[in-house]
Amino acid sequence: MNEVERIYNELVSIEKILVEANSPSELVAFSSNSSKVMLLAAASYFERRICQDIEMYGREVINLDHIPSFIAKQGLEGKYHTLFQWEATNANKFFSLFGARFSAWVKGKVKEESLEPAIRAFLALGNQRNELVHENYATFPVNSTYEEIWKSFTEGLHFIDWFPVKLREFPSEPKEE
Questions:
Q1: Is residue 40 scored above 90 in pLDDT?
Q2: Which conformational region is residue 135 in: left (phi greater than 0), alpha (psi within -120 to 50 degrees), or beta?
Q3: Please, what's the largest Cα pairwise distance for the chain?
Q4: SS (H, E, C) the chain
Q5: CB-count exposure of residue 140 (10 Å: 0-12, 13-18, 19+)
Q6: Backbone angles phi, psi at 174, to 5 degrees
Q7: Residue 42's pLDDT is what?
Q8: pLDDT tens digits, 93-149
Q9: How confident is the model at residue 74 (pLDDT cuts 50, 70, 90)?
Q10: How many CB atoms lie within 10 A of CB 156?
């Protein structure tokens, strides 16, 4: 169980208690706040996983500590939001950061493996998260229930689990010297 699933299960339990207590005003407040909590938990989890997976891959491929550390500190920390075009329905901007050959190859894999729904769910959560934190968090309306966000999270998780596998499967060519 990951931490997002733990939060989801806690929200389900809290909601059940409020329903059993017949507390309509508390249920309204819960509904608003639980969606925000679930959205931040899901999007933060995705961010951490993407960044960790790229850094870990760099460590495997380069087999040195200082280069992957540089990549993490200068390429990823605080810059995750720039890796994706959040309003898009595809991850083409992200894929292109790994070079033209990788981008073309991985886009083919996305189509072959019907990963488009997972990518759309991932991007939608990231986009909603950005809107939530850059607007007035206290008053920003999240138009999804925590259950709907959970469903998008589980769909987007397919992309998060799939991408590091594709990094390792990519047929690299030896560099010319």
A1: yes
A2: beta
A3: 73
A4: CCHHHHHHHHHHHHHHHHHHCCCHHHHHHHHHHHHHHHHHHHHHHHHHHHHHHHHHHHHHHHCCCHHHHHHHHHHHCCCHHHCCCCCCCCCHHHHHCCCHHHHHHHHHHHHHCCCHHHHHHHHHHHHHHHHHHHCCCCCCCCCCCHHHHHHHHHHHHHHHHHHHHHHHHCCCCCCCC
A5: middle
A6: -65, 145
A7: 97
A8: 999 999 999 999 999 999 999 999 999 999 999 999 999 999 988 889 899 999 999
A9: confident
A10: 24
Cβ count within 10 A of residue 89:
11
- pLDDT band for 35, please (50, 70, 90 cuts): very high
Q: Which residue has the tokens 């994706």?
A: 84
Say what the alpha-carbon torsion angle 74, 156, 5, 40 is, to the nearest 10 degrees: 50
How many residues appear in the chain? 177
CA trace torsion 40, 46, 51, 53 (10° rounding): 150
Cβ-contact 31, 73 below 8 angstroms: no
